[in-house]
Each structure stands twice: as structure tokens, then as C-alpha cells.
Amino acid sequence: MKFLLAALNAKYIHSNPGIYSLKAYTQAWLKEPELSDGSLQIEIGEYTINNQIDEILSDIYRRKPDAVGFSCYIWNISYILELVRDLPKVLPDVEIWLGGPEVSYDAARILEEEPNVFGIMMGEGEETFKKVIRCYLNRQRGREDWDRYTFPETEGTAIRGKDGRPVVNPLKTGVDLNTIPFLYQDMDGFENRIVYYESSRGCPFSCSYCLSSVDKSVRFRDTDLVLKELEFFLQKRVPQVKFVDRTFNCRRDHSFRIWEYLIEHDNGVTNFHFEISADLLNQDELQLMSRMRPGLIQLEIGVQSTNENTIREIRRSMDLSILRKNVEIINSYGTIHQHLDLIAGLPFEDYDSFRRSFNQVYDMKPEQLQLGFLKVLKGSYMSQKADDYEIRYKEKPPYEVLSTRWLTYGEVLKLKRLEEMLEVYGNSGQFQATMEEFCREFNTPFDMFEALAEYYDKQELSKVSHSRMARYEILERFISHRIPKRQSYYRDLLVYDLYLRENLKSRPDFSADQEPYKDQIKAFFADEAVSRRFLNEGYEGFEARQLIKMAHVEVFHDGRAVLFDYKKRDALSRNAAVHELGIWRR
């Protein structure tokens, strides 16, 4: 008997730790002597939503499973249901199971609407999947007490009873995290992919928009066990490990020991991502962070709103003043990437209120400010309050907000366009110097991105896919139109930002003419090949003609000469090191 656990991830670099956990947990149980005859196989099938449905269908067909379990989320449920409707046409005897947050809270409805679905595993899946596999084993072995193990009696499942109606048996207790085997016995198949790791499950907070608030209990994997497993990642020099803990630092002794261990055993390569509540950090933790290598960790911090009425209404626990102070302290270290989140469409947050929230968070100077839109998830408290808040949201996943009592659909569209500008010209980090200066031309950062979004809209630029160089050219036109007197100054800033990232093969039309400085640039690299005043580490043994291709000197409109060193890059921004060479005369 073969059971295929299938995941449709959003991108290739992602993986699905859930199905790996189900397999590891159940296979550990199957190793028991009375079960280890090899009569049951559990396989993993990972795909992406970018794969053609026919490709996925044909791969599952070639594997010939007896049962398939799909891991369901808001980003993949429509693809999975398409597979559910077609799979029995090519594998008539296959039994299809669904699991995951997108099907756990309305399992009965799905069973009624999708006749091809055999059953649904609700909530945490490890124990439930083990019990389902036990049922399959008993069926396979023709146990006389088979009726006692019928699926409708399995806790954590929803399945059709003898009368054809859904029988729902909710999960009563969660699994002990220490009983789940380590998911990564080797790194085969995870090359160039994000590795996910779980050291706790659940969340102590009750945010109304989040499914983690449904189960307020928090369970931890033993910290000693966690440290042992992190050692494996460090020895393998994994590029990034992303902790999926909902609030990593909610238990201070746990988080502190892990961060301390990472400092002591840092391999100089691996980056660790944590989702935290910044207002919970104390002085000892902040002091610990000050010792971290640049790029050792990155932090995702959910602010969501700075409107006190909104924070209160969504049941969020947050001290904004402490959060702001701690974010500022971490910023001062210059070694930790901070990613701050905002959600548009929350109750009591109108357009002007969101504008204030945006500006206050932007002023905290995170490396990234993610502007998300409320998703009214099944099973969340927000879904129960949707009518009270007059929330209108999309019928199909991801159930994104269209309007609320406080925010019109037109305003949501404006924020959508602003979000695109934020991603391109803010979060990309490719326009840092330009945008920092350009922001001073406006009352607030929000106004700057809003004006840029309106320009894109009027010029019908949002409907076109743009290259990186095209984005610079569009911004140059917008700035020149808005501030013609400072055209040369901003052109220099744009060229500066361009060369910070890469040694360009082709130059933008608005860049300063370098021909008058051609001989000076050659002379500089000839001298540098001998003196090594600036280009030393990584440039050993190279001659002037090679150095001139490896680094770049740019002379701007005002005669300021700058050397861009691409062998030395900032650990957070990945920008080239910069050396000011003074004013050069023609």
C-alpha cells in the first residue's frame, strides 16, 4: 500500500515541513517490530503552483499511489481542487485526503461539495495521520476487528459515515513536539531552498485575523534538542533556516539560549529568520543581539497598525512605544535585517489612519516594510465579525479584503498601487540613496509613494512588465518632471544606486558623460594595481586592465569621483563598498 503526501508550494525555493513531519512521525512508529514488514510506503511529492496541472497529474499517475493526501492553504487550494476532480479519472481507485488550515475549519462542507474527497485530516496532523495509516494497515491485513478501526471513529478526521453524511471528529489534544523526529537527516533535495524549522507550536496571543489564535496554548520542543538540531544546519552550512514559530521570543529562556548558541557556533554563512514580538525584548536580549555577526539573524516583526483603537479591536497585545524603541536600538547595530509588517483593511483603520500607521512604521527605518491586505480566514475570529465590520472580501482564496466600514474599494485600490511602488522602489533596496533624498520633497513617505503610484497610473505603466533599468528611467522622468531644478542631482543619485548593486554593462542615458575622465580613470587603476590603497582583499594578482573590469569609478555631474568595490559588500544590503576619491576636474 502506498500513501503519497503531496504539497503544492508557492515557489520552488519553498518546501512544506508539514508533510515531512507527518512522514517522519509515522515512519518512526512503523519501525516497531510488528509493523515493520514494509507493506506500507509513504512517499513525498512536492510541486509548485507554477507547474502545469497536467505535469502534476501525470507525476502522481506514474507513482501509482493507493491514497493521496494534499496539504491545503489559501495559495494552493484552487489548484488542489482541480486535481481532486481529475485524479480519479486516471486513478479510479485512489482515495483522496485533504489536510491543512484551508480545509480544517469547514470540513463538512468540503465533503458535501467534493464527492471525490475520501476524508479530511483537521488541525495538527501527526497523530491523526498515524491513526489513518493504522486503519489502512488493518484493512490491508484483513483484521477481524476492522470495524473497530473504521475511519469515522478516528480523532482529527472528517469522513462520510455509513449514511453518506459527514462525520466530524475534532482533534482534542496536540502532539508532543519532542516526539517528532528531526525532519532533515540529510540535505538532499533541499539545495538552494529555504529550510523551515519549528521549535514551538501555537501562539500566546489572540489576534483576531490569525488562525494561530484559535489554539492559545504554546508548546515547545526541548531546547537542548533544538540546539542539537541547529548544529546539523550549521555543520551543513545551510544558507538560510527559517523558524516557523509564530512568536519565537514568547518564552525568554528558550529564545535566549538559541540566540546565544548561534553566536557561539556561528559558521559565518547560515542566516536564521525569526518572527518575534519586538516589544517583548529585554535589555539582555538586545545586548546579545549587539554581538551578532552581520546577517546572522533577520527579524520579522508584526506591527499591523499603530492605531490604538484598531490594535484593541483585533485583540492584539503590543506596546508600540517599546516596539519602536527596540527596533531603533537594533537598527543602531547595523547588523540585523528587520522586516516590519502592516495590514490594510483592519477595523477602525480608514485611509488617513493607515497613512499615519504607514508613516510611523516607515520612520522606524526597517530594511523592509511589508504592506499586506487583510485576509478573512475561515475559522478566525475576524470571519465571525466580518458582518459587524461590514467587511467585503473575495469569495475565493485568499479571501482578501475589498472594502470595510472604514475603507472603500477605491481606497483599497489606491493602496494596492502604493504597495507596488513600495515593493519596487522601497523594499527592493535598489533605490536607497535616491528615495531617502526624494522623500524630503514630500510631507511624508506615504505621500511620496502615493504620488509615484498616481504617476504610474496616469502613464499606464502598471500594466507593463519593466526591466530594472526601466524602473530607474521611469523614476528619473517622474523626478525631473516634478523637480526640474534638481534634475542633475537626482540623476547622480540614481546612477549611484545603480552602481551600488552591480558593475553595469550598459549605462543609462541620463548618466554623466565619462569621456572627459577616461584618462584619469585609467591612471587611477594603473596606480591602484601597484599601491592597493583601496582594492586589496580579493584583488591580489590582478593587473590594471583586469581591475577596471572588476571595480568601477564613476564621476558625477558635480565632478565627485566614487569607487565601487564589488568584492566587499554590505552583509545586509549586499551593496558594494564605496570609496570617495574627491573632486576630479575635466
From TrEMBL:
Its cofactor is [4Fe-4S] cluster. Residues 1-143 form the B12-binding domain. It comes from Clostridium boliviensis. Gene3D superfamilies: Cobalamin-binding domain, tm_1862 like domain. Transmembrane segments: none annotated. This is B12-binding domain-containing radical SAM protein. The lineage of its organism: Bacteria, Bacillati, Bacillota, Clostridia, Eubacteriales. Residues 189-419 form the Radical SAM core domain. Keywords: Iron, Iron-sulfur, Metal-binding, S-adenosyl-L-methionine. It holds the Pfam family Radical_SAM.
